[in-house]
Amino acid sequence: MEVIDFSKSNSILNKFMSEMRDANIQCDQMRFRRNMERTGEIMAYEISKRLEYETVSVQTPLGTATTNVPCEDVVLATVFRAGLPFHQGFHNYFDHCQNGFVSAHRDYTGETSFDVKIEYLASPCIDGKTLILVDPMLATGTSMYLTYQALLTKGTPKAIHIASVIASVQGVEYMKDKLAGTDCTIWCAAIDDKLNEHSYIVPGLGDAGDLSFGEK
After folding, report:
1. Per mean pLDDT, which range of 3-7, 74-78, 196-200, 208-212 is the poorest?
2. In this structure, how many other beta carbons lie within 10 angstroms of the beta carbon of residue 18?
3. Which H or E run includes 151?
4. With contact defined as beta carbons under 8 Å apart, do 201 and 168 qualify?
5. How many CB atoms are located within 10 Å of the residue 59 CB?
6. What digits encode the pLDDT tens for the residues 148-170?
7. Model-level pTM greater than 0.90?
8. Alpha-carbon distances of 205 from 22, 23, 26, 139, 194, rounded to whole Å
9. Cβ proximity of 136 and 174 under 8 Å
């Protein structure tokens, strides 16, 4: 399984990341959402390079042009609510894809202990298709994996791309273990070293849902 960490190379994405992490800038909800969206757009472009292509002919006003276009059936799935701006960035580029949505949230059983609950699923059939599963934060990996399991009730994808803005080392290792043997690639704008006692990524950026839409 391949893991791609965009922070290991220099690109404009690092600028967007620095603004999303910066406590003095991230309080601007509109800018935070737009940076989430732009991060999704950049990742969508990179993932598009891994798809299968076919050659098509296009009639122009002056002649005929040929070009290679993606020919895979893509399903873009996201986790409510934090994933919505990130999802929009992907959808700006994969504008003809089908879309799936899953509600996953932490149900706290103590100050630092919790279960992850899946309460809603709306998805097309994913059987034999390319699944792009996006969620801004890959912390423990539990929410992402349970979301993936919920989507499997709609079929088995031929390939999986998991995309996160920030992941923890623990979350990445968890997903690598759970999805071992599948055709899966993990894409991260950055991978941080640890989780705190509340299982939030450190240094991370805080609660992506609250920063996008206000406190719950």
Report:
1. 196-200
2. 11
3. helix 142-151
4. yes
5. 8
6. 999 999 999 999 999 999 999 99
7. yes
8. 8, 8, 9, 12, 13
9. no
